[in-house]
Amino acid sequence: DAKTTQPNSMESNEEEPVHLPCNHSTISGTDYIHWYRQLPSQGPEYVIHGLTSNVNNRMASLAIAEDRKSSTLILHRATLRDAAVYYCILSLVGGADGLTFGKGTHLIIQP
Amino acid sequence: GAVVSQHPSRVICKSGTSVKIECRSLDFQATTMFWYRQFPKQSLMLMATSNEGSKATYEQGVEKDKFLINHASLTLSTLTVTSAHPEDSSFYICSARPLVSGNTIYFGEGSWLTVV
User: What is the pLDDT of residues B34-54, one digit of tens each?
Assistant: First the structure.
C-alpha cells in the first residue's frame, strides 16, 4: 500500500475551521484517498473519500491537490465532538484488501 | 451510513479459556470482513481478512490456530480467541466491505477483551 504522512497532532479552537493535511507522494492513479476518524474507545468512523475531484458531505470536505500527492480534510466548524484521531488512508479502487492504518493526526479542540 | 455491530462490547475472561466476538453487518451484505487489534495508544493492526464461505487469510505474525475466524454468512463473522492469555488483552475491531458499492469499508464499535 502507498504510504501517507500526517502530522502527529493539531490543535484548533471550537467553532473554527480545521484543515488536516495528508501527504501521499507515492499515490497511484487507482488509489482512493479515504479519511476515517476514531474517537476514544470506539471503532473508526468513515468521514469521506475521493479519487481526483474535491468532495463534500455533511461531515467534511476533502480537497485533493491537482497532482494528487496531497490532500486536506476540512472540518468547516469544529466542535468538541470532533476531537479524535484522524486517519488518511489510500486504498486501491476495486481492491479487496483491508485498510492499512498509520498513526494519524490527533486533533485537539479547545473550547 | 452502513452499520456494523460487534458483540460483546466488553468481555473479561480467565486465562486459558476461549472467547468469541461477533461482527454483524446490520443493513448490508459484506463480501469481506476484516479483523483488527489495537493496543493502547497505538494504531489499528490488521489481523486477518475473511471472505464468506472460505478460510481466512492471516497477516504475518498472527497465529491462525489462536485467532479462529469463521465467516458463516454475508452478514456475520466471528473471531474466537482460544486459550487466551493476558497479553491477548486488547481492543478488537471488525470491519466490513459492502457487496454493493464496496469502495468504503465500515467499522464496528470494537470489543474490549481483558484476560485475567
Answer: 999 999 999 999 999 998 888
